[in-house]
Amino acid sequence: YHVRSSATLYQYIYQCIDAINARLEIDFPINDVEKLKVLEADFRAHSRGGIWEGQVAAIDGVHFAQLAPSKKDVEDPMKYYVARKDEYALLCMAMCDAHRRFLFYDISKCATTHDSLAWVGTSMGARVGRGDLPSPFFINGDSAFTLSNSMITPSGDPKLDAFDF
């Protein structure tokens, strides 16, 4: 059928988003060791020879390009401008499982924030940083993140630069 106004179109879009969100379960089970064991087993099964042990999530930051906001839209439009990409964007920090299903996301940080700072500024990043992720589990991140007992990152050795792949 025909949509007669942009307000009606947005109403339908929001109804669709609400329906998806009602069914979508995005939850990193940091407090549930049994669920963490399932996540770990999936990553291990996907590793070469099933030898990669302990990983329960993969994390990265991504910029979603957007049209330039105006002062009418946001207080400081330049907070959304990413000079190195020459675009306006939203920064999303996201974790996924071995099947590429989202386990956690956060879009509350400024687009110019470095991934490592955006991560530690999230509720989940703070929890992982405090040591709430039980041993021997860890999250796999790229070189933007800081190596810790709960985060595995590249070594910095150029011979191992395929880590991100």
Structural overview:
The chain is of the alpha/beta class and 165 residues long. Helices cover 27% and strands 21% of the residues. It has helices at 6-23, 33-46, 115-120, 123-129, and strands at residues 55-66, 81-82, 87-96, 102-106, 138-140, 151-152. Strands 1, 2, 3, 4, 5 and 6 form a six-stranded mixed β-sheet that branches. Strand 3 (87-96) and strand 4 (102-106) form a beta hairpin. The longest helix is centred in the first third of the chain and has 18 residues, at 6-23. The radius of gyration is 19 Å and the shape is globular.
What is this structure, in a nutshell?
The protein is α/β, with parallel strands linked by helices and 165 residues long. It contains four helices and six strands.
Number of helices: 4
Distance between the termini: 45 Å
Round the mean pLDDT to the nearest integer and report it. 88
Class inferred from helices and paired strands: alpha/beta
What is the number of strand segments?
6
Helix content: 25-40%
